Write the structure tokens for this entry.
Amino acid sequence: QVQLVESGGGLVQAGGSLRLSCAASGNIFRFNVMGWYRQAPGKQRELVAGIIIDGRTNYADSVKGRFTISRDNAKNTVYLQMNSLKPEDTAVYFCNAKSTSMYWGQGTQVTVSS
């Protein structure tokens, strides 16, 4: 059973920073892609950033230059460093992992005050 556990969310003022962590049960090399999605109230869940097993990354246009996704294979953990946060970044952030199946974490709330 795959478990993804997010942490690091919270309340921050606009312009501030947060780092989200996603700890996976077992070796993350099982997953072809890992990523972060977010869902704001009344909106669809959207991709924020993804990292492929070879290390390539991709980002939503709205976060390019502000967010950085990375992985620590030794710790089976994926991170999302979020800088220059804006109120529109407020959402529940979900960790995602894909192999032959897709897995989700429980989500962590990020609230950015203006």
Summary: The first strand starts at residue 4 and ends at 7. The radius of gyration is 13 Å. The mean pLDDT is 95.
